[in-house]
Specification:
Elements: E1 2-11, H1 17-35, E2 38-43, E3 50-58, H2 62-78, E4 82-91
Antiparallel strand pairs: 1-3, 1-4, 2-3
Helix pairs in contact: 1-2
Length: 92
């Protein structure tokens, strides 16, 4: 089972792409380390207050994959400087 989440976020209190990258670097590192999932910035690389992230996990069953994705989304929500605007989850 493959679970894929596409997440659109707004980043607050950043004034440059450098600050945005700093915030994203911390979030992406935590996601990879804590949940062992693949994460990449997929959209809005040239905007400093928006981002689009892609998260992917593979598991032998749907329940485990769904739990991992939901925990990763909760981790994103735990950062006060970023707000999740839209989230699309797909199963392959």
């Amino acid at each position: 089972m493959i679970a894929y989440a596409e997440v659109e976020c707004h980043i607050y209190d950043t004034q440059s792409l450098k600050q945005k990258r700093s915030v994203l670097k911390r979030i992406i590192a935590r996601l990879k380390n804590d949940y062992n999932i693949a994460v990449s910035e997929m959209d809005h690389q040239d905007l400093w207050q928006r981002t689009g992230l892609g998260l992917v996990t593979i598991s032998s069953d749907r329940v485990t994959a769904e739990r991992t994705i939901q925990q990763a989304l909760a981790l994103i929500d735990s950062f006060p400087e970023i707000e999740r605007a839209t989230t699309n989850v797909e199963w392959l």
